[in-house]
């Protein structure tokens, strides 16, 4: 199984400041033949199901604000929120869909400082 | 609108079975994989398995094989997850989620529409 490891486990950032979450996979999730990383980010707020933010490592899902961006390739990825808003408080998960069983990171809890 | 609506909370004793349903609406049910993902207390998200509503074919995480049955009823656009020989560590919120890409795509495995979740509590 591909192991996904996020850092940090929790993060406190001031409103309007930048927040960055990292995720590392135990093996590459880049399918080089089509140059696509089989990698996604989700946001989960308390009492709600997860919400897809980004897939293909950097493609924003429809309706996701452009302050959210994803980057990285191979085994190292990051999610950046350029200017933190109060509604961004949530747990964020990375996920690989390169191979089954699909696996998630352990989650990063983002709070307001 | 595209929607997945799950059945209500369940409380089961160890060793029992539970069956959770997921009713799909707003799209062609047989066009997309349906996945099951769980979130246990204090844990992260865990993919449980998936079903092709078109063929009925399934696959799941190895740790669940032998205990898990995924089925669907296309006439009522509903998928089911049954988990048997329940243990206390099966206590979790179970979500169904639709695959982002239509069946027949070259890729699968991101989840764009989620059910509201079903809390399954296993306790003696």
Q: What report would you give on this structure?
A:
The complex is a heterodimer of chains A (113) and B (124). Chain A is an all-beta fold. Chain A has no helices and 13 strands. Helices cover 0% and strands 51% of the residues of chain A. Chain B is mainly beta. Chain B contains no helices and 11 strands. The model of chain B has no long low-confidence stretch (mean pLDDT 96). The interface between A and B is medium-sized, with 23 and 25 residues.
Question: In summary, what is this structure?
Answer:
Chain A has 113 residues and is mainly β.
Oligomer: heterodimer
- Output the helix-strand order of chain A: EEEEEEEEEEEEE
- Give the N-terminus to C-terminus distance of chain B in angstroms: 40 Å
Give the count of helical stretches of chain B. Answer: 0
Radius of gyration of chain A: 13 Å
Give unreliable regions of chain A as ranges.
none
Low-confidence stretches of chain B: none
The coarse silhouette of chain A is globular
- Tell me the major beta sheet of chain B: 7 strands, mixed
Termini distance of chain A? Answer: 36 Å
Query: What's the mean pLDDT score of chain A?
Result: 97
Q: Which structural class is indicated by helix and strand composition of chain A?
A: mainly beta
Report the total helices of chain A.
0
Averaging pLDDT over every residue of chain B, what do you get?
A: 96
Strand content of chain A: over 45%
Q: Outline of chain B, from the CA principal axes?
A: globular
How are the SSEs placed, and which strands pair?
The complex is a heterodimer of chains A (113) and B (124).
Chain A: E1 4-7, E2 10-13, E3 19-25, E4 30-31, E5 36-37, E6 39-44, E7 51-55, E8 59-60, E9 68-73, E10 76-81, E11 90-96, E12 103-104, E13 108-112
Parallel strand pairs in A: 2-13
Antiparallel strand pairs in A: 1-3, 3-10, 4-5, 6-7, 6-11, 7-8, 9-10, 11-12, 11-13
Chain B: E1 3-6, E2 10-12, E3 18-25, E4 32-39, E5 45-51, E6 58-60, E7 68-73, E8 78-83, E9 92-102, E10 111-114, E11 118-122
Parallel strand pairs in B: 2-11
Antiparallel strand pairs in B: 1-3, 3-8, 4-5, 4-9, 5-6, 7-8, 9-10, 9-11
């Amino acid at each position: 199984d591909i192991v996904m490891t996020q850092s940090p486990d929790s993060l406190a950032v001031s409103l309007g400041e930048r927040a960055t979450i990292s995720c590392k996979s135990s093996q590459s999730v880049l399918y080089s033949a089509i140059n696509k990383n089989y990698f996604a980010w989700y946001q989960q707020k308390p009492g709600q199901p997860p919400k897809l933010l980004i897939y293909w490592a950097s493609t924003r899902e429809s309706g996701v604000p452009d302050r959210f961006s994803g980057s990285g390739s191979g085994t190292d990825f990051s999610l950046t929120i350029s200017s933190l808003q109060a509604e961004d408080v949530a747990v964020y998960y990375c996920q690989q869909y390169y191979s089954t069983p699909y696996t998630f990171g352990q989650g990063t809890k983002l709070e307001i400082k | 609108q595209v929607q997945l609506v799950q059945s209500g909370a369940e409380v089961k004793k160890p060793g029992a079975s539970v069956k959770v349903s997921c009713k799909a609406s707003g799209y062609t049910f047989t066009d997309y994989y349906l996945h099951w993902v769980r979130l246990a207390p204090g844990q992260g998200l865990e993919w449980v398995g998936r079903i092709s509503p078109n063929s009925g074919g399934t696959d799941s995480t190895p740790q669940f094989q032998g205990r898990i049955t995924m089925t669907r009823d296309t006439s009522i656009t509903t998928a089911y997850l049954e988990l048997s020989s329940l243990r206390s560590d099966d206590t979790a919120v179970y979500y169904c989620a639709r695959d982002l890409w239509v069946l027949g795509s070259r890729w699968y495995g991101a989840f764009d529409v989620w059910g509201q979740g079903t809390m399954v509590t296993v306790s003696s």
